[in-house]
Amino acid sequence: MSRYGAMYGPDLTFLGVPACDLADAASFADADVVIVGAPFDGGTSHRPGTRFGPSAMRQACYLPHDGSRPSLALRVDGLRDLRVYDAGDVEMFSGDIERSLSALEVAVHTVASAGAIPVVLGGDHSIALPDATGVARHHGLGRVSLVHFDAHADTGDVEFGNLHGHGQPMRRLIESGAVRGDRFLQIGLRGYWPGPDVLSWMAAQRMRSYEMTELVARGLDTCLTEAFRIAVDECEGVFLSVDVDVVDPGMAPGTGTPEPGGLTSRQLLDAVRRCCYELPVVGVDVVEVAPPYDHADITAYLGNRVVLEALSAIARRRRDAAGGDPWNPEKPLLDSR
Amino acid sequence: MSRYGAMYGPDLTFLGVPACDLADAASFADADVVIVGAPFDGGTSHRPGTRFGPSAMRQACYLPHDGSRPSLALRVDGLRDLRVYDAGDVEMFSGDIERSLSALEVAVHTVASAGAIPVVLGGDHSIALPDATGVARHHGLGRVSLVHFDAHADTGDVEFGNLHGHGQPMRRLIESGAVRGDRFLQIGLRGYWPGPDVLSWMAAQRMRSYEMTELVARGLDTCLTEAFRIAVDECEGVFLSVDVDVVDPGMAPGTGTPEPGGLTSRQLLDAVRRCCYELPVVGVDVVEVAPPYDHADITAYLGNRVVLEALSAIARRRRDAAGGDPWNPEKPLLDSR
Amino acid sequence: MSRYGAMYGPDLTFLGVPACDLADAASFADADVVIVGAPFDGGTSHRPGTRFGPSAMRQACYLPHDGSRPSLALRVDGLRDLRVYDAGDVEMFSGDIERSLSALEVAVHTVASAGAIPVVLGGDHSIALPDATGVARHHGLGRVSLVHFDAHADTGDVEFGNLHGHGQPMRRLIESGAVRGDRFLQIGLRGYWPGPDVLSWMAAQRMRSYEMTELVARGLDTCLTEAFRIAVDECEGVFLSVDVDVVDPGMAPGTGTPEPGGLTSRQLLDAVRRCCYELPVVGVDVVEVAPPYDHADITAYLGNRVVLEALSAIARRRRDAAGGDPWNPEKPLLDSR
Amino acid sequence: MSRYGAMYGPDLTFLGVPACDLADAASFADADVVIVGAPFDGGTSHRPGTRFGPSAMRQACYLPHDGSRPSLALRVDGLRDLRVYDAGDVEMFSGDIERSLSALEVAVHTVASAGAIPVVLGGDHSIALPDATGVARHHGLGRVSLVHFDAHADTGDVEFGNLHGHGQPMRRLIESGAVRGDRFLQIGLRGYWPGPDVLSWMAAQRMRSYEMTELVARGLDTCLTEAFRIAVDECEGVFLSVDVDVVDPGMAPGTGTPEPGGLTSRQLLDAVRRCCYELPVVGVDVVEVAPPYDHADITAYLGNRVVLEALSAIARRRRDAAGGDPWNPEKPLLDSR
Amino acid sequence: MSRYGAMYGPDLTFLGVPACDLADAASFADADVVIVGAPFDGGTSHRPGTRFGPSAMRQACYLPHDGSRPSLALRVDGLRDLRVYDAGDVEMFSGDIERSLSALEVAVHTVASAGAIPVVLGGDHSIALPDATGVARHHGLGRVSLVHFDAHADTGDVEFGNLHGHGQPMRRLIESGAVRGDRFLQIGLRGYWPGPDVLSWMAAQRMRSYEMTELVARGLDTCLTEAFRIAVDECEGVFLSVDVDVVDPGMAPGTGTPEPGGLTSRQLLDAVRRCCYELPVVGVDVVEVAPPYDHADITAYLGNRVVLEALSAIARRRRDAAGGDPWNPEKPLLDSR
Amino acid sequence: MSRYGAMYGPDLTFLGVPACDLADAASFADADVVIVGAPFDGGTSHRPGTRFGPSAMRQACYLPHDGSRPSLALRVDGLRDLRVYDAGDVEMFSGDIERSLSALEVAVHTVASAGAIPVVLGGDHSIALPDATGVARHHGLGRVSLVHFDAHADTGDVEFGNLHGHGQPMRRLIESGAVRGDRFLQIGLRGYWPGPDVLSWMAAQRMRSYEMTELVARGLDTCLTEAFRIAVDECEGVFLSVDVDVVDPGMAPGTGTPEPGGLTSRQLLDAVRRCCYELPVVGVDVVEVAPPYDHADITAYLGNRVVLEALSAIARRRRDAAGGDPWNPEKPLLDSR
Q1: What are the extents of the domains in chain D?
Q2: Paired residues of C89 in beta bridges
Q3: What family, per the record (chains A, B, C, D, E, F) (predicted)?
Q4: What is the pLDDT of residues B131-142, one digit of tens each?
Q5: Do A95 and C164 touch (CB under 8 A)?
Q6: What is the CATH number of domain C14-321?
Q7: A154 is annotated as contributing to ligand binding
């Protein structure tokens, strides 16, 4: 396998970071992070279009594509303080979900095995199965917890006659043992799916799912603190899966299964920052950005910023671990940090 | 009159609930709720398009149209735990507002007289006049209070030379005695209309109008609690009228008279839930969803979810009244409820 | 199998024609035409969205959904003079192209075997393989010619590692013997695909492909006359496959692989009319209408009108065959026809 | 009545021509042309929005709003060589079609009585009834023929329980005697409406309706020549009514009842030019431009250019009548004209 | 120089306030406020379109353009209680930034010199340089502080080889001495620009920049109170510069350099109100509304409402200063205020 | 100068052709064609956005970005049979038109001097001045004729107080002597600009401008044949300047100054093909593609295909000149060519 490049548009790297080739181990041997595109929407139950998500998220920025993004908030450069490469897209034919997910799992495992954090740009949420599996195969099945921002639990069983699809990856991950049910932390659920049977199954797995009602009643930060404590209990790493539909569709319309009543963009960015700053994140995916339903690229921008927020916080976590002052959100921007 | 079906598109029912025919009393004899479409925008002072609101709100969902929607938050199925029918659209020619509103009043009264809760899908807000009148004629003039979410007071007098229109229904309701002025609870007003004369008239009626400034300063929940207490004072029932423009146009662009600075979608859904869970709601309308100005159906989705939220809360209220545990918003999703 | 209904939205029939159930032979025993939805876009190489094509084409009309459409041009009612049913959608999971195409082939063959003309609403062009195969299995392999309006030849071999996809159905049909290569009439090709190897293969099959250059230089009607003569040579029936991208993307933007320089909508409608009036059409599909990329439903309207034009012309052909005056396009509208 | 100004936006004049006030006869005493806005869409059977047509058509231009538009093709300035005023909008409440149409008829008659040509900017096609009636009342009932570009015949009887609406004005005009049935020239009809009964009625009135089939088969120019000959037989004046949906919806999407297969923009402009250059036009309306469904203002631009084309041709007709060289379309642009 | 009128569309005034001509001092001699359009986007580093901002903000309202807007929240009419004129647009060719900014500075200074508050409708943020300079030249260099709502610091040095552009005005203002660095109050910064060098320069100027992190952690109102205290320290006046991109792009998509994670519309309106009610504002600009990227005019509406909020608060401040009761946000709308 | 890359998005090459660097002569020493991006819209008089034209035209294709595009019509591969490089964008700050145009002229001249054909992707039409000048400086002032497809003559004098802008380049080219007035061939003019004075100036220069009226009356092909004959009279080379607004805005909405009544896309592609096949083209620009006003990328696709059509025809011209059979548009696609 040589570098595949982009299926859906030109072969770009995320904001201009260096390219690598997963078939050439030397090309990313020193990587801290490898970005992987998963242009797949064959698992979508409703509106497709996420196959253009990787290209859109790589491009959505008004600043030069120069491989550098110094964070105002965290005072690190997530693209420079970490060694970040972009491996391009994995070939994923939307008409063949099994082969496509397998190919992605190989790619993600390749990255994880090299000691780097895979950051996968979806694609629909079907890809969380190979994403988290690929990471767990390296770090140990059941040794990676999953922090999952989403409007939907994604724990369906068989849908459209198939075990795979964007409503089912979390069930498959638990069934396979890749992730322990009681190390699943779901944030932002709401709406009218799944029904009681699936909820019972989830309860039986001892999943911890924070529906919006609870988040509003108890406060998002309180719930995150509680969830993060569970996430690191008996787990060495955390996989962060961000479905952009966790944000209210009024603010993030470019997605396939919009569910009103979600988080604000600000809340999501802050939560991702906390997750990556406070927890030992070993893998990330950002999914369900569907450009055909977007307007003025605002959802693509949000996906891009979720990635940057994650990378910035990982970089800051490493810097602070190396002896820096801990990050203080109340400090004025222009005070020395 | 036989079932009219849809004027603006195919004859659909709301998310697949059974159809009924208002001309055939047997077809909805056991109904708890009857949905009625009011595809009318002849009363709109600015951007039209709400005639497509009923069709859009009936369809806006990524889940199967199977007449079932189990609420994650409330653990009831608003479409199954209640007996819900959809009577289709009332014939309403936008070029003849008087005849159209009369036809709708007949339809709403027919539903209320059968002991069911009418849920009217607008249409522009002109329809609140026949909606609340039709209900009040059954429950008693002046015996139904009105909880009204809106950016606008809708208490104008004559506009465009006419007594009817989407800026005037609330005045007509008070003048006719259908609803007492001091049982009008308005939530979310803002902007630059109406002027001092109309405000004086409103004050003279002893209406209680919560402008956004007060909601921000005192807190939405505090204000709702206060308003709800008034609503049930000497009234047996509550009519809930939700103008989608109460939400900020940034989150709900598909409407005719957008006024920046509104509620979030999350706030509206929570407020509707509280209203229908805490109060004896006897009628509902959801108005001013204008699909031509919508993007990616997000405003139609919001309208759909407002209906579901109302039905879910009504179902939960009935379940709890029948002896269930009261609903606790702080309880985790997967704990037995 | 019971009637499946709609995967992507409510269960509608085409402009209100009666529903039937392919699992219940009696429900369409007297059908002249059965409409079948193929909501599948797993075979799309670029922009997805055609899964919403069936729903969009069924609804795109400003007239009542009453199962009647009297043609001004042909003075027949394609939905009433013929017995037309709508079987709803076939379950087609976009993530599994092989199973999906098989399910569609069964459905189409079921219709053809009942003596009716299947009219399949796509979906991407992958479905032409099961569409034409299902028909040919009934009428005889190699006994049905194929008139194919398209910007693309769709004769690719393996793409994305798969034999199936929307760029390959025509090759598969020839390889399987379902349709003879020299009875393939392609109208409207243009652009930059396929390359010389595939063109050589096509020439070897003795396909007859009319690129836009030839159509402009010789005249569309001249070319159609020539093509239609070939189509009925040693063939009993004709399958008409209309890819909406044969029309210029300026007039039909809602499609996945737009190629500038196409026919006008008027030209396509006239050509479809001629095809169905002059030839013994035994099956039709209309594909590649992708609503997410459409504007103001204009491409969905065009797809809807292609279906109506085909049905009207079939009805007129039957009427004239039964002894009516032949159709004369120069006759004034209001002269008795 | 004082100058009403704009209902739907600021009070603008068409490309900056001088304003006049219909209540002040002196303000337009010397007018050749008076533009009148008819912001009404209460008669629309499907997509509304034409109430914003007048404002959109007045503004849609990239050149300065300076009240001058020298035509390259005709070498006259339709806004300066004629004395053109803009009377603003007539107050037309979309919820009351009868009152609204009456008010418009008064306005149009006022203009015609002053010896000027009214040019009415719609609004939906309901307005053709007051437009042509207002003109005919001045020039003589039955003395003005009607040249009508449209996809639809607009000869329906009762619809939505009403005699008025955008599908019925032509019938009302004939019934009232304002326009003779055999002086109705309809250009561009197509599609699936009206049905046989209405067509029989039309034939009985001896209307002459050119469906697209005939236009394609015989040639648009041939048909226009024939129609124009009829138009001036026993009639002193011609009313030109242009429904923008006569153009293919691919090129003019911003309209309410799009019917694929229409004229090109070029064809319409050329036909309007011929009509106003060759015939004694005494009134014009341009209707059915619906901005909410438009994209990048292209339909509004088309409406604006239809007005300019008409005014330019009227100006050129007058110049040539005053002794100029007749217009020659084959002459190079830069030759002295 | 005579009144220039509008470059980009018809010559409108803001919601119908009277026009004035900057070349004719008498035409605005008694003005409290003069609105000036700055249709310039030649300084934009990414998406252009703000040249249409002035026209869009002037028109974006569903109420009559009658020069009156009584504020529900503040019970004053910002357009009537103040004497407000609109001077039209300044001629600003986007291809020549230096000449354009100079022309604007002259216009703003002319307004300020007449004792009126200039309210400039942008245009891109390049215009803050002439806006604040024009005001400071009248009130005294270094005597006017700057309250600046924005996602970006706009303190870049040379970009695209030029000293001017929408990312640099704040630096130029400090360098020239027009505004003191330590009287710059920036609210809402976030994202990934500028880098450390520019931040160091900003710190050296003793600017006070509130990044979103601090605003969330400490509370927006707390930060505003702190900032406002600085603003009036040793300064007689405050210039308020509102870049609409301070609001989250999900709620205000029509802008050129969208940065996710911003304020809500409600927060911005409340903050602008506080600023203009609590501080001695002597100039305002509202910039970066880019209509080509807007949807359903929601961003234009927001810009319009920011202007109205500012004017209403200024009017209320003056009324209260003249002896009225101070404004109390907790007071019910219908209580006498 | 090192390779500048893209100002407005990532650094892409046109459909994947190799990159070159204008500062490194060796990188394009063997080039037949060098593509240059001119992301400039500072000269636009109305809607901006063409700065994103180069990026959009480089990307707008559903086929792999592999640097190969075999033309069905011409049976050559314009990207492979010619040696084509992409030099990236020239730095052009839209706020400084003079500096920007100078920088582009240097770039174009560099390409021409190397013996390659520059193909410039605009950008607004201001760039035609440096484009044609840069070429003429190499081939000889007055020795290159200009074939100009456009709705507008672009021969204005001073506008917005400036000699440069997108309405003036053709005048500047004639004034400077770069192109002879009587070797200017303009195709597709229409509308209401320029006025008589400018037309007189044009006539005095002996320009030959084909307005749409003449094109319709005499036939496009007849006019092209006439124009092409003039173009090669006493000129060694032809510069082809294609303003995408020559196509009807209904088919090409993504542009700044849309003028209804234009060519179809098919007509433009055929005309460009003829121009590049029949004439000795030495430079090309494709301008006025404005992505913010585009829909579903259809105008960007058209711009991309204009470039490909030009390159294909140049390649075929060279092949035929080298002894191949002349191209015959009537020949079937699959006959050996």
Answers
A1: 14-321
A2: C37
A3: Belongs to the arginase family. Agmatinase subfamily.
A4: 999 999 999 999
A5: yes
A6: 3.40.800.10
A7: yes
